[in-house]
Each structure stands twice: as structure tokens, then as C-alpha cells.
Fold DUF3019 domain-containing protein.
Amino acid sequence: MKRAWVETGIQTVFPVALSPVAIRSWCRLAWFVICFKRAWLLGLASAFLSSVVHAQTALTLWPTTCVTLQEGRQCHAQVQIQWQLQQAEAVCLYLDEQLLQCWAEASRGEWQWSFADTRTRLLSLRRMLPDGVPAETLATGKVEVSWVQDTHKKRLWRRF
């Protein structure tokens, strides 16, 4: 069987001998790989290290972006959290208003967080008063959730 090559634009992509189903599958895979790579690179570039410095206080999160396949799906990541203060004091790490972890009289700390959510979440390092009530926020950081596929986009290929 003689194979002819189909040209799309400038590049030669695949032989005509492939079935339409195989071509559609190949196109879907190529589209997914391109979109996922783009989202991953954007996440890597913007999420290399998110540091917020407030009067010699640093809170570092890595990664700062969690990428899921579609909007609304839960994203999972192991987030490494490090913080450093100019002097030792009692501090706590909060997720929005939820207490995650506290340290007594420490000038630095590390914590690993199993992130699993569908939306962007804000973390804050807060100074604690002697009675255990949070005082001022020393530093903040966030883990953003992004997705590869747009759920509102009309699907180009459908199976019957």
C-alpha cells in the first residue's frame, strides 16, 4: 500500500493510512500535552518561590501553584512551607482562619502540608499572644489552583 502524507500548515504530521479515529486520538493527545506543558511551565515560572517579607519575616511556599485537569476538580500537592523571623517568638500558621500548626519561641520553622482543594487558599503566619490569641499577621502566602482544560469550551470532537 502506497502511503501519502497529509500536510497541515508547514509540518507533515501523519500518514493518510491512519483511520479518522486514530487521527482524532492523536490530535487530542497532542492538544492535551501542549496545554499541560504550557500550564506546568506557567506554574513553574510563577511558582518558583513565593516569598512575602515583612520586617525581616519571610514565609516561603513551594509549589505555589497546583494544576488540575479541569476546573472544579480537586487539586492535590505536597506544599513545603518554611518561615524565618528576626527574633524567636510564638507563632502559628493559619489556612484562612483555620489553625494548622504552632511553634513556641522559634525563629524559624518548616512544615509540610498535604494540599487538596478546588480553589486558591491563603496561608498566614501570625504572632501569638501569651494567652494563645492570634495577634498580628507577620507574613502571608497563597497556593493557587489552575486547570488545563476549560469546562465552558465546546468540545471539538465527540463520540456518538
